[in-house]
Design goal:
With 209 residues, the protein is an all-alpha fold. The chain has a domain of 117 residues: Invertase/pectin methylesterase inhibitor family protein (Butyryl-CoA Dehydrogenase, subunit A, domain 3). Helices cover 71% and strands 0% of the residues. The chain has 7 helices and no strands. It is rod-shaped, with a radius of gyration of 42 Å. It holds the Pfam family PMEI.
Length: 209
């Protein structure tokens, strides 16, 4: 009897466990597969177009001839392609103007010396006087141009003053050429070209600071 009772008890226990399993089936936990979230795309800073600052400045000029000169001169320096603003353009224009005026000054010194030390025509006194004035004027103007880069760092508005002083210096050469009625084409054309380079420096300097 005891064995039957034990067997019956075990049977009832098994049936109870089976019923519980049917009513509450075990849940299988499935590990979620980690799906990496795409990194948020960072906003990219658009690089400025080449010659952007140069085009913006030069294209503001009303006169077509001035626009073409501005573009041609600045584009002759590779740095203009990546210049970020007019400060960069001014530094470039100053370097170009110094190079141009130095060449003109050297030509005037050579021509002046040649007239003095060689047999000169009777009408060369006026040209000698004008060349002497222009050499001094160019030395003054070049000195003013060389100050501009330092002024841009310390006191930007002063840079325009120095550019104007360089312009005034070359104007004294212009005045002497006119006063002495110089018609020598190589002398005149070099001066006019140099004066335009310096004027470009003045124009850019007026937009800085």
């Amino acid at each position: 009897m005891t064995n039957n009772s034990t067997t019956l008890s075990l049977l009832l226990l098994l049936l109870s466990m089976a019923a519980l399993l049917i009513l509450n089936p075990p849940t299988t936990v499935i590990a979620e597969k980690h799906v990496p979230v795409e990194a948020e795309s960072k906003p990219t800073t658009k690089k400025p177009e080449p010659f952007n600052a140069m085009n913006e400045f030069c294209n503001q000029k009303a006169n077509k001839r001035d626009r073409e000169f501005c573009n041609r001169v600045l584009k002759s320096d590779p740095r203009s392609a990546s210049a970020k603003d007019n400060v960069g353009l001014l530094l470039i224009s100053v370097d170009l103007a110094i190079g141009k005026t130095n060449k003109t000054r050297e030509y005037y010194i050579y021509s002046w010396a040649k007239l003095i030390h060689h047999k000169k025509p009777s009408n060369s006194e006026a040209l000698i006087s004008a060349l002497k004035d222009c050499v001094h004027a160019y030395e003054w103007g070049i000195g003013e141009l060389k100050i501009i880069p330092a002024e841009l760092k310390d006191d930007p508005p002063t840079a325009s003053y120095d550019a104007l002083m360089a312009h005034d210096a070359l104007q004294t050469c212009d005045d002497s050429l006119s006063k002495n009625k110089i018609s020598n084409y190589p002398v005149l054309i070099r001066h006019r070209s140099s004066a335009r380079y310096v004027q470009l420096c003045v124009d850019i300097s007026m937009t800085v600071g």
